[in-house]
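ingest -> fold -> write
write: protein_1
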Amino acid sequence: MIYQKNFIYMLKNHYNRINISFVRYTKPFKKKWMFSSHHGSHSNELALQYFDFAYPLIFHRHWPSIRLALLSLPKPVALINPHSLSNKTVKQKLIEEGAIDLLRFDNTKLREDFSLIQEQIAKSDEEYGIKKLLEQKENRRLLGTSDLTDNQEETNEEEDDDENDDINTFNQPESVKTLDDIYKQALEQQVHSVIKGNVVPVVDDDKDRKFEKMPPSWHVYTFPRGNTSRFEPAKTDELNLLDYYCMDGACVLPIIALDVQPFHSVLDVCSAPGGKALNIFHSCPYIQLTCNDSDSLRWKRLVEVFTKTVSKDTLKKYVKFVKGDGCLFGQREPASFDRVLVDVPCTSDRHALITAFNIFSRKRVQERVDLPDYQRKLLESAIRACKPGGIVVYSTCTLAPVQNEGVVERAIENLASTTSNRKHRGHIDDYPIRCEIISTKSLEKHYAYFFEFHAKTRYGSLVLPHISNNFGPLYFCKIRRIS
């Protein structure tokens, strides 16, 4: 009987401890707003919905693979720091791990094979478009709408051609039933940019450029195509400088297009967080680099990146940090720089899918609608700040043509008209500014092994994310100021 009572007592104590532990750990957690069960309410979800409406009209059958890559981890590259004491050791270590120098990759056969693949994909896209047209005609015939007059059929064919050339006409869907009124209004207010494609002259001055000859101080390492290995966190040397800086591999392309030469004065209008500016400085050390950004937090990040990779004495001698509105550089320092990079704020397609509060938020509807106009002002200011004969490279990290080719065409058109220059406050004269676009097709051909380029861009180049080499998205256009 005594043993039975002791056993019951032990069971009760054990039960109470279990019950207390359950009470302790089953206390309801605070519900996180970003993991709410109300789908479609957060800006990253709205961004994906927006992409699913707009981008299939532009990229057609390529959109599913682009979408998969955007939702997957991006592939970084390692920008070697030439100012670090351990840069030679780090390069040897990366080579042993299987990394290759993106700027000096000289496998000609692989390059030619991938260029041929890109040509075959472009040809297949044309055949796919013709097939869709024939299917549409057959569907009209089966539906009993084939008794149209010849003129009506010709009109319909022209409309179909316009629909298939969606890279040049970026119109939103007419009806969006799944989104609320605010978001639907934002879609309808998006700029209907018609890219004419024949307004700005395009020259192929880089066709004979030897891209394999790069400055000895500039090294960018990546893993081969299909290799998803990651770089270890960067370490510091005896001078407390990082041995390399990780970034998106597509960011290297605008700097290659910029073609900075020794003793050039270079301006980076929207410089933060500093990856492209670092590439500029490492590609040609004997330059005067001006880094600008208007946002205080991003500007601090920019200065921090440079101080961790470049010694203080070198920074004081060659780099100038400015915090101000990029739209005013054309007024304050007209025709002052040999090279200008303007990496404008954009919808940042990949970033928008992983952040809970971004430009697709309902609270930032008007900001997104006004974004292309702000981008145009930044580009016009950059061209005004560039010397005649100098080079301006415009870049974004979005797939939207309205922010890419649309901005380039409208900015160059505005600068070519004397009326727009008269309206520009503080401008010295009323003469138009003429520009031309330098084709980057030869650059695309040379780097076809590493990047997937869109075949239907009228101006510049567009890097499409692809799961085998998940770089981008990134658009860049090379512009020369003539007068």
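write: protein_2
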Amino acid sequence: MYIIRYLSAFLACSGIVSAVPATKSAVEAKSGLRLIKTSAEDPGAWVTEDEKISKYAAKKIAFIDVTDIKDPDTLARLSFSSDDTARVAAITYPTTLSHQTEANGLIAKTNTNGPKSWLTTLTNFYNRYYRSSYGTQASTWLFNQVKSIAASNPVITVSQFTHSFSQPSIIARVPGTSSNLIIVGGHFDSTGGSSTARGPGADDNGSGVVTILEALRVLADAGYKPKNTLEFHFYAGEEGGLLGSADVYASYKSAMKNVLAFVNQDMTGYSPSGKISVYNDYVDTSLTAYVRRIVTGYIGAYTTDSCGYACGDHASANANGFPSAYVCDEPDATSSPYIHSSGDTYGTVSFVTVQRHIKFTVAFLVEASYL
């Protein structure tokens, strides 16, 4: 992680310092505008909360809200392209899989009964927009659901991670014999194209949420005892510019937590190809190779793609110096045409696809718990 301490200085002398967002002015602060970036080179644009959704999210233009990011190394990192960012962790991932018997025994206990029920509830909220009362209600429901699932193993802790907005993120923690962290996560907020639109968010990202919930259920019921500590993250405010995950990983960086791996699950329920897709930009290359190895060993063939700047919560981990990977249900060109609209409904989700991601998630957690 030491290398990014020099990024700010490098930016200043390399002529691209303009890509680092400027400090918010008093006028802009008073008006409540937010500073967002849509690319590494973008110096940022001040927009309203509604404009973030209607002018960007609704048009599937990815962005990160950098208004509250104060760490100069993180800001510098956000101003480098994926190819320019140095590796952030000197972690050697295994070249072989060694825990198939244990993992397959747990995989055999997975099913989609819970995911179907949980996704029904999630999509029944009018929307899960992070600034709406529905979004707050969805967070409360999810917090209680995670606690209920985790209750079968009393060593698991479940907590809310609060933000400047009213939708907390949620973290479930399965303690290991080591404090090193293996994390799976995904966002639970949704958008229908405006702050007031119907946004069921079934594939994006109710599907990822129920995938992670089912993996947690199986490990909790089994009383699984990992070597590395496992965390299950449910992020708020992703559609507003990766807000929840940005806060979580800034906190982890400040606390000097040792994250060995984070896998982002954002959309796991729509797959014409019938294969898991492993994305390859704004991620750690070595961790991503390890993820592909697990997909191949437990699931089979995979697809791959790039999704660009700030396309998901893995970008927050990466910007804060933690190794991240991103798995999705499909390459971008053939992904769900319904996301960020009222059409992203329960009926568009394939639970065969969800089950595929559940199996991968359990396999990843077991294999990585021994890193």
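write: annotation protein_2
DSSP finds twelve helices and eleven strands in the chain.
The radius of gyration is 19 Å.
pipeline exit 0
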